[in-house]
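Task 17 of the worksheet. Students: predict the tertiary structure of the chain below and write it out as structure tokens. Keep your answer in the requested format; marks are given for formatting as well as content.
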Amino acid sequence: MLFCAEQNVGTHAPEPTGHAPVLIEETVSLLGGVAGARILDATFGGGGHTAALLESADQVSVVALDRDPEAAARSIQLQSKYAGRFEFIATDFGDLPNLDLGLLDGALFDLGLSSFQLDDGARGFSFRFDAPADMRMDPEAGISAAEFLETATEAQLIEAIRDFGEERSWRRVVSAIIGARGSGRLERTRSLADLIAQNVPRQVPGRKAIHPATRSFQGIRIAVNDELGAIERALPAAFDLLRPGGRLVVISFHSLEDRIVKRFCRRVAGRPEHQKDSRTMDERSRRAKLLHTRGLTAGEAEINRNPRSRSARLRVVEKLPTQPEKKS
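Model answer:
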């Protein structure tokens, strides 16, 4: 199913809970507006994108995924309003390869944390609140951040702080975490943030100031939830479910996510994935076309309304018809 550009993008449905989904008009323009389209929202969150897509044309249906139990509760309103057109599945999008969803006309990923999770102090994602250091997207699965910090190997801590958090002072932070084991300082967000801050140099004058624990908290959260691994598993699975002409839209918020998304999009478009990709054209497979080479970003008006959108980048590919095999 091919998508046209004539959508009612200015009249999308408001998010049921007041949460502001990013790049909403761009998303609806790329995925919505086609009667009868079947779309996957792999990151339901507060349901803003889902509601807008359901309202974009007659008989649009959406199947949504989210592993957060609170997202499941938020989905009830839409399940009632759009009965027969909206289905919610309580699962991690990293499990997409194991789901039988049938063919899709579009798929959406809005990666990273939602403002619901950040603003709920009890979830332990933010050091703005003093709470148990949990950080799990699904509080009933896996181990908490505190458990991870107490039991992870040094190599696992290095991966979380240096690779996922991109913290330059990772040696000092990792050493401090190992030294604090058994002291109780790793159990709560405030004490953990203070421990990290004591081992990260003060901000360089003139540069944008962020809390010294910001990068480490990001890395720990990514490790606890296997966020990057889930993306790597889910993107090919979602793309394979698309009909020819179907579109895969991914919104990312930091460089680690965006790097995976960018390389995947270039791979299915038959382009070099990175500067060191020296494969010949015969070694590549062109299964999609890039609709926006550099990705889309929020405009000034949206950034003013929703500062979270400042770091968002949207990438999209459109699946090409299957090419018949050449006869020898």
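Marker's comment: The radius of gyration is 21 Å. Residues 1-18, 324-328 have pLDDT under 50 and may be disordered.
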